[in-house]
Design brief:
It contains 14 helices and 13 strands. By secondary structure, the protein is α/β, with parallel strands linked by helices. α7 links the parallel β8 and β9. It starts with a strand and ends in a 10-residue tail after the last helix. InterPro entries: Glyco_trans_1, Glyco_trans_4-like_N, Glycosyltransferase_grp1.
Amino acid sequence: MKILLCTNSFENVVNGPAKFANLILEINQLYPQHQIHILTEDITAERPYVHKAELRFSRLFKPFSQFLRMFVYHRYAQKIYKTFPYDVLVYNNAFIGLWSAMVSKQPVVGMVNDDNNLTVSWQNFKFNQLSIKQLIFKQFEKLAVHFDQLVISNSHYLTQQLINAYYLNPEKICLLYKAVDLSKIEYKAERSFALPIKILFVKADYVRGGLPVLAKSLKKLNHIQFLLTIIGPHHKFEKHIYTLFENNSHIKINFLAEQSQKNVYEQMCTHDIFCVPSLKEALGVANIEALAFGIPVVSTYTGGIPEVLDNGKNGWLANSNDAEDLAIQLSSCISNEPERNQKSANGRKFIEKFAANTMFLTFINIAENACKPVTRYTSR
C-alpha cells in the first residue's frame, strides 16, 4: 500500500495535524510492506519521504490562498505520482483536498480535524470577518467530504457533528484517534503539591482554550498561590493576556508564547496540573500527552474531551465557560492527593487506546478500505 499524505502543517509542530503528520512517517520503518510519503508547504528542505510544495501567492491573491492551495497541492500530487505511484491520496485537511477529490483518478480520503467550520450556522452567526470566512469554508468542506471516498474523524463527538451538519452517511466516516508516542514519554506517578501550585496551559488559540475562564477561576481561589505557565499564544497577545490577571498578587504568570514540542514536554514534567478549560475542542491531543506524563488534568465537558478523560475517571471536568465550576474542580484536584493518584493511574492505563501503533494500523486499514470498489453513499 502506497499512500501520499498532503498536509499544510508539518515542520512547525504546534498543532494536532502537524504532530500526526510527523508521527505517521514511522509506518515506513515499522511496516515496510507499506510506504507513506508526505507533501507539504511547511518544510525548509526536502528530506526522505517528504516533498515540498512551493506556494507563492501575490498580495492580490493572498486572500484566496486557502482556495488556491487545493489546485497547487493537486498539481504537485500528480507530479509525485510519476515517481511514487500511490494507491490512495490522503488530505490532512479535507477542504484543501476538494479539487483532488473531484478529479483524481486515485481514491481520496479527507480528514476533518476540528469543528471550527462544522458548528457555524445562521443561528450563531456574527457579522464579522471570522464568521463569514467560516461560513464559506463550511460549504466547501461539506462539498469536499461528499466527494471524498472516505472521511476521517478524530473523535466520536466530531463524527456526530459530521453526520448532523454535513448529512454524511455514518458508514463513510472512519474514526481515527490521534496518537502520542508513549515510548518517548516517562510517566511520573503520585505528584505531591507544594506552593505555589504550578499550572500549565497550552493552547495557541487561548480564547478557544478558555484562558479567560481559567483567569476568573484562579481569582476565586485567592487563598492559594499559583504559578501559571502559558504556552502557545503569539507574543502579540502577551499584553492582553496579562490584563486578564491584573490585581491578583496570588497568581504569577510565566508567559512562554510558542514553544517546541520538546519544551512543552519538559514543562509537563515539572508542573502540578494541566488545565486547558476549552470552550470548543474536537479531541484534545495535549490532554492525552498530559495523561501520559501523569500530570493531573482539569478540563471541560466539551467536544471530544470527555472521550479522553473517560467522562471524569481520568481527570476533573467542569462545565464549559463556567468559572465557578472550574474553580471547584481545581480545588478538588489540589486538595485530594489520593484521588489525584488514582485518576493519574486510570489515565495512564486508559490512553493505551491512543498508542501510536494502534493509530498506524487503523490508518493503514482506512487507506486499504478506500481502495476497495466504490460504494455510493447517499445523504440523509
